[in-house]
Amino acid sequence: MPYASDASPARLNCQPPETQRGEVLTGYLVGSALMLGAAMIAAIWGVDAERKPLEHVAAPLSAVPDEP
Known about the structure:
The chain is an all-alpha fold. About 50% of the residues lie in helices and about 0% in strands. It contains 3 helices and no strands. The longest helix is centred in the middle third of the chain and has 25 residues. The radius of gyration is 26 Å and the shape is elongated. The model has no long low-confidence stretch (mean pLDDT about 80).
């Protein structure tokens, strides 16, 4: 019966591809730019809905508007 240590990535010849530090940095920078963009959108168009019932935030879809 083979041991778990016998199934190491080096023994199975399936090493993960080597990544460059620049590629990882680029990924982090893109992710942080997206998060900053989302924060700006939330600051502009966000709705304060903390501890409020949903009916106070938006009208229910089944609500019928009052006709004068």
